[in-house]
What does this fold into?
Amino acid sequence: MKYRREVDGLRAIAVLAVVFFHAGFSGFSGGYIGVDVFFVISGYLITSILLNELEQQRFSIINFYERRARRILPALAVVLFTTSIAAFFLMPPSLLQDYARSLVSVAAFSSNVFFYLSNGYFSTASEEKPLLHTWSLAVEEQYYLLFPLLLAGLWYMRRINIIWVMLILAATSLALSEYLLRQNAVDANFYLIFSRAWELLAGSLLALLRPEKWHTLDQRTRNGLAWLGLILIIGAVFFLDQHTPFPSPYALIPVLGACLIIAFCDPSGAIGKLLCSRGMVGIGLISYSLYLWHQPLFAFMRMKSTFSPNAMMFSVAIALAFLLAIFSYHYVEQPFRHKQRYSRSRIFQLSGFALVTMFCAGLAGMQGKGFPDRFQQPELMTSAVGSPLREQCHTSGTDYLKPTQSCKYFGKHITWATLGDSHTVELAYALGEKLKQRNEGLLHLSFSGCPPALLFEAREPGCSAWMREAVAHLEQRQDIKHVLIGFSYTRALFGNLEHYPSLPDKSPVNKFTTKYAGIPQEALREKYWQSLESTITRLLAAGKDVYVVYPIPELPMDITKAVTPPSILHTASPQNLGHMTSRAFYLTRHAFILEKLDSLPYGKHLHAIKPADHLCADNCPAVMDGEALYYDDNHLSLAGARKIMSDPLAH
It folds into this structure.
């Protein structure tokens, strides 16, 4: 197959879009579509090569897998090895254990399935996962496993029209994507091969249609179509965002754009000259290594930063990613492509060894529970963990767990329920432990970042619908007599403590809704309070005893960063864990919601649970009795939750 410089230029656009999106740069809110462009390119190139071999009767599935191994595995193995060493020294046990699970899935080419079962792609937690980006490699590898066999089988049958078969498969995959969206299975739709295959098949169809043989279109028309393709891709990068249903018919925009450029771009035209320029081709050549390196660098930087990294820090990380990518391309990728240096058997042996080693390393990390003995205070690190059922039971997005599907702890007779955002997850588990001793059970209802959104449309997709369903479900459950509710009130109303210490001013942008443009902040906060009050009123009217959890004290930094090895990005030390913030600051920080909560008519059926009374004296510590009270800077650990959850049962 003839080398096309413009395709490498298109790769450059795709990888830069992804990298700048992950860096959070303004104007790249839809940069994730770079992956979709990569899928089209891969489908086109792989199919073109296979067709050429089939026509010349040189097709060999072993040869195909050898080429894929030479192309993908050496650089991937180096990145995995380097990232794993960094993870061992920089990650706390809970995160290292999660990293180990992801490492196993990458070695098994199933990381898309692993991340589908974990946090959503756009969640804050996912930003600190060093191997998150490997989901797309897994999708491609799964495609490579099956597609060559299918294409060869159809080719040798001859009576079957290959283009029609591929068109039907692509249409089926796109239809499945839309169906999953309508079923609120957003994460399945995003990560899994079944709803992504149509993008690769689009490239394959393009190769089957042989655009290089289309001679009926004049040069002006071809250039115009190439321009349209570039406009579609750039438009998707700038105008789509994390709230856009994706993949969906919206994904047709970058996919069609990539197809138009591949089909009609002429190196002598304006688009061709841009894509074939030395700089663009150079970035395209290192695009695979750049894609591999950028996410681990970004994840570790976020993980080790006390505050959100700024544009300058990301720029430095991107520069480092470029340097590593250039090194990787010249000294890892290129040498392994030469058969004179590495024979087929040698490539397969080294590939198998690397994958098995990474798989076993991942298993060791899982079995070792993140190796807490790496640290001077292993007991402290092992206690800085959340609920073991957090990922299974805590929901988010439009594919949320229905109330009827939600987790139940631990007794058979469900008499309690918890309702709230991520701040109630550990409280639910700790309360469930207490109730088990009384042969009672608990229904866990929590949605990530979800305010009590009965009376307004929340910023988080799916939140408002889930909250209304959850409250209605609790009203109908006669067996549930007690409901504990809690939210991250002040973070929703005033924003996070990203640059500690900070106090809520009078006019920040609210964090709980985007639906009411032009309404003053004070009015929006009153709407929030009315919605919370309405939630409490409805539960009381349904005959429930309601327990309102007051704000949880926040820390100036993630506790795990204070006891993991130091970094140039943070300066906290284990010595100050006993006085992380003052009670006076807590009272000032949460003054708005504390005043509102204090005004509620507490009595026989309405009760207040005040975490600060259990966790704070003059100061609010991060550690008590040798145990971490938090697992980050604002979520209670199980140890912290257990100190509070004796309170409801005392009423």
